[in-house]
Design goal:
Blueprint: E1 3-7, H1 15-24, H2 26-29, E2 32-34, E3 37-41, E4 54-55, E5 59-63, H3 76-94, E6 96-101, H4 108-118, E7 123-128, H5 143-155, E8 164-168, H6 175-185, E9 191-195, H7 198-206, E10 210-211, H8 224-232, H9 246-259
Parallel strand pairs: 6-7, 6-9, 7-8, 9-10
Antiparallel strand pairs: 1-5, 2-3, 3-4
Length: 265
Amino acid sequence: MAWQWYLLDSGTSSIKLSFSFVLKRKRNLGKKKKNGMLFFSAQKKKKPWKEKEKRMVFFSAQKKKKPWKEKETCHFNLLIKYLHICYFMKAARKLHAIFIGRFQPPHLGHEKAISYLLKKYEKITIAIGSSNKKRDSTNPFCARERLYLLRKIIHSHAGWKNKISLCLLKDNPSDKQWALSFRKRFSPNKYAIFSANSLVRNLLKKEGYALDGSPLFNRIEWEGTKIREKMRKNIPCSLRLPVSIRQYMKSKGEKIICACKQDAI
């Protein structure tokens, strides 16, 4: 059937109402959606344009003999901003996030951060840093033990197992070489970075990675350094750890941390 196109004047109607109206008529109007914008090409009656221009404006369509009621669109600039937000939110949902940390040991702050990231991203890779370092006071747990603890946390939550993967990251004396080796493993176009380490964030930002701005939960209480110090002083801190690993930390974890007070083992 033949359609007639009518450009609409800008008005003050609601953004959401105008947007939903356009989506509702999407199939009938034959519009194309690209990069969060709505485009169309128009043609005058009997006098076609020399070049069919794509314009970022909204329009109403009218069947012959059965006209629709014309509806005002919202202010053009506000609507474009709204579409940009919708597009980038959808794009962020498709990204795969990488959570970089040492997890010495994993605590409630890590668990809360993982839960928060899963609401924004379809999949998460937890990258365990300093995996090649020997035990010392700041790195009491080896890579194998941290993998075990994180797996226990993941398996304690329904649905996490299929969305989370684990990997190991080795330290490198050269920050530049570390960033380059990371880039070879993970493409900046596919992954967003979440980390509490400012050096890691700055290095990967220079490599072109998108940095996730998710908050750090209760950083004052839930911090690995403070938890290790309290365990060395025999101060109870099990409430700062995920429920799934409290038994392990009480029976074995505290002994490992206390054994690494000064000398490496």
